[in-house]
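Usage

Read records sequentially. Each one opens with the input sequence:
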Amino acid sequence: MLLLYTEQNSPRLQYTTNFIQSIIGESIAITTDKELFTKTEGVKICYSKEAIRNKSYHIQPQGLLFQKSIEPIDIEVTTCREQICFFASQNDSHGFDVLSAIFYLITRYEEYLPHEKDSYGRYAHTNSLAYQHQFLHLPLVNIWLNDFAKQLQSQFSPFTFHFSPFTFTPTYDIDIAYAHQHQSVIKNVGGFFKDLMRGDLEKVTERANVYSGTTKDPFDTYEWLDKLHSKHDLQPIYFFLLAAKRSIYDKNIPPTAKGMQQLIQQHHSKYTIGIHPSWQSGDNHNCLLQENQMLEQITQVTCTKSRQHYIRLSLPETYRRLINIGITDDYSMGYGSINGFRASVASPFFWFDLESNEPTNLCIHPFCWMDANSYFEQQLSADEALLELRDYYNVVKQVSGNCSIILHNSFLTEQPQWLPWRKMYEHFLETADGY
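and closes with the structure output:
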């Protein structure tokens, strides 16, 4: 156990130490009793302005963890032990207030401050400290905690920490379950004539073959994925879009369609599944509730996992809505505009509501890579995306984090446009290790 002395405790400090102990595998007790701290033997952290020299590791507080409000912070990014950092200090053991820096990043403090939106009305990644100072590609919080453990070990040898093992979690957003099958007659007929008018004979032939039962629907990649998961011993998570009405951003087949319900039931019997709240649900709480209830009706179990469609995430509103309908685990912490670590961390953490200044029971599972970002936003080829994906996988493995990625069934087809991406994913799984 680690003992941390502070002149005053606070919800923010308690939250931060709870998160740290979930990563390093050692409990952290907080005390405001200076005499007790001085007399205690073992690993001790002095988190106060003045150092207590009796065999303790001193971290000088920046002040953020003792505040209650949300205020703009002037942040100067520097380096410490060859790693990017901020909230630097001159006269302590660590070189910067790692506790406040972690809190700032994982709470997404900057997203509560005035900021510009992107074209979809989301927090623009270009606003972020991580993007502006070129550490978006790093799980900086995990890197800091690995370094923190080493510094403590050097002072309190032979103390050891118990980091969790590296894990890899592929997740899938089923935005459009089938390209042609189980779609409405009106949509299928309209699509047929549109393809014909455009002279897209390949698509016309594809539709005709699916309608006649000659070939499988191109988006029906589920059996192929099953084989990959079995071969590589993977535990994927599937998120299903269940919008009752089609819209410009919500184009899945109706959740009332028999084929859609069968697909969900099949996956529920084998894998973990969750709701993929539609774009429309971001403006209508009743819509969100109805979609979640529909998934529960189909599976006959309570739905507790969620990921926002188009990563339409706005703090704190989105997370409060999810909590209100019973969601306990959200997988939206990443950008829908660029790959990287939105919260600079590759490990799950509980959401801290900055406006109410208190922790919640909503567990946040960050992702670092999404196929749609690579293709549409970063305009990478399949080969370039493979290199990018490997880089994220390796950097997360180095810090014993969880590498969570997002793919879409519509990106993994055998259609000429997407076949290189299908092969890329298959090759990545073949060459990666450490599952």
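Summary fields computed downstream for this record:
- The two ends are 30 Å apart (CA to CA).
- Residues 167-179+217-431 form a domain with the TIM Barrel fold (CATH 3.20.20.370).
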